[in-house]
Design a protein that fits this description.
Blueprint lengths: L5 E3 L1 E5 L5 E4 L6 E5 L5 E6 L6 E6 L2 E3 L14 H14 L4
Length: about 90
């Protein structure tokens, strides 16, 4: 159905609120993105969720999420408790 792998998204529109609408012509993924200070992403159409999506405009490039561990950062099981309870309350079927 879709071509998985790396997909390039295009900026389709910028709204007066500052939200940007991005579209992937390969799989139909469509998102609304609000940059700082709001930092929000709304997935309008998921498209191929297994593909890695990226896009750029004016030197700013969005790409796949990367998580890095900083040395010295520790996450305790206790600090994760509220997050784990919240996810259980959502009753998601993963």
């Amino acid at each position: 159905m879709y071509e998985s792998g790396q997909h390039e998204m295009n900026l389709e529109a910028t709204y007066p609120s500052g939200a940007e609408e991005w579209y992937c012509p390969t799989c139909g993924r469509r998102i609304l993105l609000r940059l700082p200070p709001n930092n929000e992403m709304i997935i309008v159409e998921p498209g191929d969720q297994s593909a890695s999506h990226s896009g750029s405009i004016g030197g700013l490039r969005i790409g796949p999420l990367q998580v890095a561990h900083r040395e010295g950062d520790q996450v305790s099981e206790e600090s994760l408790g509220p997050w784990i309870r919240a996810l259980k309350d959502l009753d998601l079927n993963w």
